[in-house]
Predict the structure.
Amino acid sequence: MKTYLIASIKLTLVLLVLLAGVYPVLVAGIGKLSSGGGGGETVSRNGQVIGFANVGQVFTQDGYFQGRPSAVDYNAAGSGGSNKGPSNPDYLTTVQARIDTFLAHNPGVTRAQIPAELVTASGSGLDPHLSPEAAYLQVARVAQARNLPEQKVRALVQQHVEAPLLGILGPEKVNVLQLNLALDALK
Amino acid sequence: MSTELLGVLVTYLLTLALAIPLGKYIARVYQGQKTLLDFMVPLERLLYRVSGIDPNREMNWKQHLLALLTINLVWFVLAFVILLTQGSLPLNPDGNPSMPPDLAFNTAISFLVNCNLQHYSGETGLTYFSQLTVITFLQFVSAATGMAAVVVVFNAFKEKSSEKLGNFFRYLVLSCTRILLPICLVIAAILAFNGTPTSFDGKAEIVTLQGDSVQVSRGPAAGMIAIKHLGTNGGGWFGVNSAHPLENPNYLTNMTELVAQVLIPIAMVITFGVYIRRKKLAWTIFGVMTVGMLLLLVPMLLSETGGSPTLAQLHLLQPTGAMEGKEVRFGPAISAYWSTVTTIISTGSVNSMHDSTMPLSGAMQLLGMFINCFYGGCGVGILNYFIFLIIAVFISGLMVGRTPEFLGKKVEAREMKIATIIALLHPLLILAGTALACFTHTTYPNADWAVKPSAWLNNPGFHGFSEMLYEFTSSAANNGSGFEGLGDNNVFWNVSTGFVLLLGRFLPIIGPVAIAGLLARKRYVPESAGTLRTDTATFGFMTLAVILIIAALAFFPALVLGPLAEYFTIY
């Protein structure tokens, strides 16, 4: 036991240097070469950082496309899902309330058109995306709030639909922040 | 086929394509044969010299276990002390506090045993220093411990009869320098170039497009996320694990993390076949494990892509499936695949919230952890499978009236006793723990803890029961995922699951190593016409039957009370 103990302590210390010291520093070095320089990829407007490319943001105004509900209000100092199970009656009441809010802000839309992701919380609470259907569904509202022709806004969404990986793997999606940024730039 | 299902299929096939050559490579590493990474030799020599270890000194099975337990004790003390004092240690740009003792106890054990149950959130509960020296470090060495233990078992069957089973420290070091570290560098690079942070900067403060001030947590996460998957650890840098858009930014990183966690468990089966020169046996084992995985995956895929029946009653569209707790960039299909592999493989990382999955999926997740050997954790998956194999050998030996033998060694009462105890330990820990939690919840609802027992559950009814059952299952299986709605950061859960974690880790390592050590000493009986062959489809089916029957007998009542009852309520 004693021989193993001393060897164990020494081995632990050198492995600590290798695995908790050299390794992360090496990875940080690799990260420096990436586009965000290792601090996470940011999005800027007029030289001002206004967000992270992959982290969702709250949009409440009718003139912006709105992302999914979030259990942490898109506060990226933390993260979290609702952890509500499908049989929870309180949860179903919450979803019902979100449906009502959405319908009130989007006249002309019927509930059978609403994709579930628009009224259900994401896993991270920071989901930056919507499905193309969920974005198209908001076109009329956004166009009206901004006094833009619907055609133009719809075309903008279309430009922002990201194809599946290699065109064949996984879902299509729209990055809400990028879309809204482009929307602000529309004349 | 939809792009979402195709993503699942391609991810699995890619895993196989990489795991098979890796398995052969791992066999070469442990046997000391030439490999491409022999330039690591000077580094390894340095490690041995500084620690005063002679890597060629052979150990018997008891010495192996003693060395394993000793170094694990050192790691526990180290981790516990750092977590208790992290608030005053360097690399803490966000100013996070030290952990209270019960949480530090739980966290230190949880990472020591390769479980990675997390009763804290990474953003606020740890510092960069503890993320690296406790979390990342233990993720490497706990995985290497499991791999070293399984090599001892391989050695026991390699030679016809031997006491000498190699050197534990050598296997531990080789697992780190030749397997885990090099592959992690590749994975971390992929993550870094896809947007996962690697720098030591603290939280970023930004004003959003709409004009709100927000903070964004980050840190040197990519390296940790690589080993978290490759070592089947599963503990995330951020609170929501791989659902977090910085921890898992896009579909490519999602595939990478999925391949990474399944890679070594499958490769180890291949290694086994090469190592003991019985490839057919290895393929039989692989076949049983794959059938087992599919039996869990298919129902989970169907129930998640089918959508939530309660949301369907609200007349919502669910074109891709159930979306509560899931991310748009992944979708329900690959999330269901993730939930399957993360529970059968004891990773316990998540890219969607298991608490919000459909009842049938919850049942499959629980079953995956009940069984815990369809591929199974890094190294330990084979050890768990080995227990069932011994039981299957014994039962089928009795059925056909032959002396039970495995690879030329007689399986006798002593080995069977150990195997049975280990097989029964798992349900005991889970069911007794859940019973204790239910008792406490109903009898002492107002106990003065950080979270009162009456406030533990995030969901009422059957689902609430599932939350408690899941927590103990995840602990005993050393999995680490959770029905995260459970209010588990209080003295009851921290301490009770802490002990379950310890028992659920070390006994299932000690048992198989002891059995292998005992068998290795025995005289080799050459195979004859009277030998029950263990590398046939028939025997594979027999093993699967043993696994499923034990799981059904032990866990069916608990499943009925939780997910199955919920299923029949809402469908």
